[in-house]
Sequence to fold (187 residues):
Amino acid sequence: MEKKLLAILGSPHKNGATGAMLQFAIKTAVQRGWKVDYINLYEKNLAYCKGCNTCLKTANCVLQDDIQEIAGLLRECDMVILASPVYWANVPAAVKNLFDRLRGVAMEETASFPKPRLSGKQRYLLLTACNTPAPFSWICGQSKGAIRNMKEFFKTSGMKYAGACAWTGQNKKEMPHHISKKIERYF
Fold:
């Protein structure tokens, strides 16, 4: 049975470091037999969450835009890769908006603790890039902050953590070999 990968780019620069990491991951996945669906958040029509909380009961957002497509792909995939740059030790607004809009898809609110709506058989891989060089990116919490934010969404949804890869101080023209080797291991 063919495995399904949902690859999401959360960067406005599709040819930047984050985009290069995601494209390498997609190429590797395809070579290893995965079916890939690609989403560029900056090319999608996604309104902001209105905070109506209807999705917590229905598992679907009432706003009609591209979130329905993304939600369907997320529910059906075996693995999701979210590639997001670091903005102020966090994710950019487009990624945060995605999380807000997928709230009811990812979880059901209960009286005590949120109940996951996605499967523990699904995995997620996080890719990020920032200008701050290592080890300062990690010491100052730049990459760590973005990864923590992304992990929180997927953990709450019930998905299983596959790993994360951070390309720091990416003033190089080509992706470092250790980054590509790390990405290959996830497939």
